[in-house]
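BUG: 3D viewer hangs when loading the predicted structure for this chain

Environment: internal workstation, default settings.
Expected: structure renders.
Actual: progress bar stalls at 90%.

Input used:
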Amino acid sequence: MRFLRFGLAAAVAVAGSFSVLTPASAETLAEALASAYANNPSLNAQRAALRATDEGVPQALSGYRPTISGAASAGINNVSGSGSAYPTSVSISVVQPIFTGFQTKNSVRAAETAVLAGRESLRATEQSTLLSAVTAFMDLVQAQANLNLQRQNVDFLRQQLNAANDRLNVGEGTRTDVAQTNARLAVGRSQYEAAVATLNTAVAVYEQVVGHRPQRLGSAKPVGTLLPNSLDAALAAAMGTNPSILAAAYNIDVATYNVNVLEGSLLPSASVTGTLSHSDTGTSGPTAVTDSASLVARLSVPIYSAGLTDAKVRQAKEVLGQRRLEHDAAMAQIRQAVISAWGTLAAARAQVEAAQAGISAQTLALNGVIEQQKVGQSTTLDVLNAQQDLLTARLSSVTAQHDRVVASYSLLSAVGRLTAEKLSLKVQIYDEIDHYRQVRDKWHGLRTPDGR
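Structure tokens produced before the viewer hung:
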């Protein structure tokens, strides 16, 4: 019953808007979006995934840098008649790559492009999270409004039942009127219970997406100035700014660089190795202690790799073809999403106007039927039917307003503008570049920039 009390306390007016009958401290849609932006675990997980992708760049850059290794050994050597010796040795070696068949260069480019793709994937997740928050908010508002309407309907039917019983008691009504009203009241109560269940579900989804339990909700309006003025403008904007399309384009570049990396392994490679060593045989004599230094240039030419490298190159080219097809699919999908959202928004706007007209007409009709009933020109069934028509019109109005708000944000998402920055949400905007700058040129260190 806790959810039920919340629904009744925050039930909204249904006379044509989604204004909530609550204090000024009620949570607005913008506040709910800000909470989802800061707290949604799926969005935070994608941010962590991008930070992990950032680390691919210093990994690739390590191909330009020297590697240093050291070795040490100690042991015992027992020779019959000569006693025991304790040989020891230490050495340090530095290997500097000179040429790797452009593998390092292409690996760095692939890693940097993967970061760009990851940023667009993060923006896509941000958009889907914010759209889910909008939908959860509006679903909850709709559920509240529907519950309020069903409660009003039950109250009205109870009054009609009392009136039918009173007329029956004074001999002006019939048992048929009472039975019909009772049946409608039973249906109204079942619809009320269904509205309670819907509200409970909406509350649970809201808490999951937004990150906290709703208390009181404020008003919500469709997106206005951020939307394109025409369908053609919306399609053009989506093709240039939708993160799913941009991420797919970057993935094509990543796959291209990966092909180049594998092809580079078929080219010669060169490196320079410098070594310093010190050894002690543990015995006496002029050659007991030896110090040495060496500098060696090495050129390696691959001749035959048993077909392994060739297969990897062919595989990478197939992946490249796959990425190109995925880009085409993303463009087609976003085009469909824009057209669908544009049409849904236009239809919802028309439905809102039609619903308002329907409410006015059905309210007038119900009042007229009630007056006619008083003078015997209409029956109880006429009143019940008129009340049902008015309830249907009001429910349609709530649904139309819900659909208009959600459709406007869906269109904004399809275009690629549903972001915290574009919406001017009062929240600290996550800077995905900051972490990249901190780790790109790190030569050593196990701790992440946040201290872990």
